[in-house]
Write a structure and sequence with these properties.
- This protein is an alpha/beta fold and about 240 residues long.
- About 30% of the residues lie in helices and about 15% in strands.
- The chain has one domain (about 10-190): Rossmann fold (3-Layer(aba) Sandwich), CATH 3.40.50.1360.
- The protein has helices spanning about 10-25, 40-50, 80-85, 110-125, 160-165, 185-190, 205-210; strands at about 1-5, 30-35, 60-65, 65-70, 100, 130, 155, 180, 195, 230-235.
- The strands form two sheets. Strands 1-10-9-6-2-3-5 form a seven-stranded parallel beta sheet, sandwiched between helices.
- The structure holds 2-amino-2-deoxy-6-O-phosphono-alpha-D-glucopyranose.
- 2-amino-2-deoxy-6-O-phosphono-alpha-D-glucopyranose binds next to α5.
Length: about 240
């Protein structure tokens, strides 16, 4: 694991974006796994800036989002598709047909999870996977539990996660109870993982994830097994890792 600690949030975003841009430069047809949440917003801004400055094109890039809420159609303002459209897709030249995200509005979620996993298998090893971590240690929506799934699956969100994520919704009741998420195995197949986390609220879970034992109760700890993991943190998030 290559850990880099930055003083300034903008520097984390730039360094993480540079790592993604490097992948696209060496392979314009790169496949990229994408994550949502507040953490990668700055990284997406830096990718947009690089695109606007003519430094990188997404024309031949293919993207695979790691998760989506169940019951929310793509055009729902709280869907992860809409989030990605706002922060990245509408601002770069990635073709719509190259964008992949589980369909949360599917009437058969289990079948949709299987379909998405088949797409991932067809794509093979993703060139880079962008990831962050939830306060309870979840990666994507792989929630803490005694067992973890390797492949894309339907998950029941924990009440903790629904509460944390309710900030984006008008009320807790509006937060979906289920989601479709790539499994830890699907994410771990990527050639490189660009992991970012910011802020003191994440410090304790990051210590458990990166210094503790590999434990399904801390899904992020599985990342320790990845051979090419880049971790970008600010000083407060890295408090117990220095
Ligand atoms: N499914 C996403 C995760 O992919 C993300 O890493 C996490 C942290 O979000 P934030 O970056 O806002 O702390 O929350 C969400 O639930």
């Amino acid at each position: 694991m290559k850990l880099t600690v930055f003083k300034n949030e903008k520097d984390i975003d730039q360094a993480a974006a540079d790592s993604v841009i490097e992948v696209i430069k060496s392979n314009p047809e790169a496949t990229i796994g994408l994550a949502t949440g507040q953490t990668p917003v700055g990284l997406y801004q830096k990718l947009v800036q690089a695109h606007q400055n003519g430094k990188v094109s997404f024309k031949q890039v293919t993207t695979y989002n790691i998760d989506e809420y169940a019951g929310l159609a793509k055009d729902h303002p709280q869907s992860f598709y809409d989030f990605m459209k706002t922060h990245l897709f509408s601002k770069v030249d990635v073709p719509e047909e190259n964008i992949h995200i589980p369909d949360g509005a599917s009437s058969d979620l289990e079948a949709e999870a299987e379909r998405y996993e088949a797409e991932l298998e067809k794509a093979g090893q993703l060139d880079v996977q962008i990831l962050s971590i939830g306060l309870n240690g979840h990666i994507g929506f792989n929630e803490p539990g005694h067992t973890l799934h390797a492949e894309t699956h339907v998950v029941t969100l924990t009440e903790d996660t629904r509460e944390v994520n309710s900030q984006a919704f008008s009320s807790l009741e509006d937060v979906p109870k289920k989601a479709i998420t790539m499994g830890i195995g699907s994410m771990m197949k990527a050639k490189k993982i660009v992991f970012i986390a910011k802020g003191e609220a994440k410090a304790s879970i990051l210590k458990q994830a990166f210094k503790g034992p590999i434990d399904p109760l801390v899904p992020g700890s599985l990342l320790q097994l990845h051979p090419n993991l880049e971790v970008y943190l600010d000083e407060s998030a890295a408090e117990y890792l220095k």
